[in-house]
Write a structure and sequence with these properties.
Pfam families: DNA_binding_1. With 175 residues, the protein is of the alpha+beta class. The protein has helices at 36-43, 53-67, 84-94, 104-110, 117-125, 152-161, and strands spanning 5-7, 14-18, 24-29, 102-103, 138-139. 34% of the residues lie in helices and 10% in strands. The protein has a three-stranded antiparallel β-sheet with strand order 1-2-3, with helices on one face. Strands 4-5 form a two-stranded parallel ribbon.
Length: 175
């Protein structure tokens, strides 16, 4: 896809794609898992234009401010493409406050059915916009860190940056 742009950040290199209106449609970690199935899904939407320098700069600025602990929310425009259920899950992810986590079951319960935790996990894994749609804030029911497209070390780093690591994740004295 010609419209994928590599952005160097203090979190590491990321790859982003924007739609014709400048909304972010993809954000992922460049040095971990290049999410080809997700990118193929986005490619079916039509050509992804080369991103405009202003949009790339704004995204980079906000990611840097977040990494420096100076930003808790993002206001870059997003356009998320997914099923109605995925859209509900991604909206739920965006309601998890900075510095907090939810288990898959808690998020499923917030969406109306605590028995949908596996479906929530699948939708979480299909999130096309890492960090901005904070799928890293979803953890296992036991408080353990579970899968993340950027890798568990990055998930731990993001949660630590937000002050969201609990004593269950790190026993007293291990910080």
């Amino acid at each position: 896809m010609s419209g994928i742009h590599r952005i160097e950040t203090s979190l590491g290199p990321v790859q982003a794609a924007f739609d014709a209106d400048g909304a972010v449609i993809y954000l992922g970690f460049a040095d971990h898992e290049f999410r080809m199935p997700l990118l193929r899904k986005l490619a079916r939407l039509g050509p992804v234009p080369r991103p405009d320098a202003t949009g790339v700069g704004r995204l980079r600025e906000q990611l840097e401010a977040y990494a420096a602990g100076q930003r808790k929310a993002f206001d870059v425009p997003l356009r998320l493409h997914g099923s109605p259920f995925e859209q509900r899950v991604w909206a739920g992810l965006q309601r998890i406050p900075f510095g907090e986590t939810r288990s898959y079951g808690q998020l499923a319960a917030e969406l109306g059915d605590p028995h949908l935790s596996r479906a929530v996990g699948r939708a979480n894994g299909a999130n096309p916009v890492s960090i901005l749609v904070p799928c890293h804030r979803v953890i296992g029911a036991s408080g353990s860190l579970t899968g993340y497209a950027g890798g568990l070390a990055m998930k731990e780093r993001l949660l630590a940056l937000e002050g969201a690591l609990s004593p269950v994740l790190h026993p007293v004295g291990s910080r």
